[in-house]
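Researcher: Here's a chain I'd like modeled. Treat it as a single chain, no partners, no ligands.
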Amino acid sequence: MREELTSFLVKYEQRIIGQSLNLRLLLSAILTGGHVLLEGVPGTGKTQMVRTLASLLGGSFNRIQFTPDLLPSDITGSSIYNLKEGSFQTLKGPIFTNILLADEINRTPAKTQAALLEAMEEKQVTIQGETYFLPEVFFVVATQNPIEFEGTYPLPEAQQDRFLFKLQINFPSFEEEKNVLRQVIDHRFSETADTPVLDLTTFLTIRQEIETVTIGDGVLDYIMQLVRKTRESDAIRFGASTRAGISIGKASQAWAYLAGRNYVTPDDIKMVTKPALRHRMQLSPYVELEGGTVDQIIEELVGAVPVPR
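Model: Modeled as a single isolated chain. Structure tokens:
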């Protein structure tokens, strides 16, 4: 199965230029059944990144533009009365898909945000007292704009904790961005659906193989030391939760599998720690006043924890 996954990743990186690390992290997240929060300025390819993932996977894709007047039923669905048949009929919302892009999730009030986040956690939706299960492959990617604050409703820390990763989408290098521009101008870049490289059945088999990747006791201790260090540091007001440690462990299994190994190393842990922790920590006021960032503090914490041999 690794050959199919390698082919998938090669095709993915050919379509989305300049985001190799984020693509691998995004793939690691969906392979572990987690969800991702994407943060980046407009025009950096966030939507295309998620749409291409769905196309190459052969899964269904829906996009919801979050706005202040969006209702929970606009996401989950509703029940209407069918006059012709004389009975109520359930109309399922766009959440019933394999890959869902929740665009600008911080532009909708907390009640609507909660409707989506509950589905992410439970993988089921209740419409007029009736419970409907979501697809086995259900992956939510929520985006938010870091430079606009007017008219936004920031996600509470407890809700951000539901996401496996928070990825920051930065601008590509000069040459990479020039390559994108050249492809568009020469009409070599198409936004049409790509031919699937994997099917959902193969994908689920790969997910089961990832669950068998070994994490030794020494590596588990390393994960716990990193998580607990966030609760002991004076630079951090609120440290990471137990769910953070679970996220690091699961994500490291997928990262090791992508690297062609059946066991997790401390280097795998280091690769996934930053995206797994950056949205789960709140800095102390004095650190923020001094211009410190979450990523800087995480790097310091990782450097302070001894690596197991």
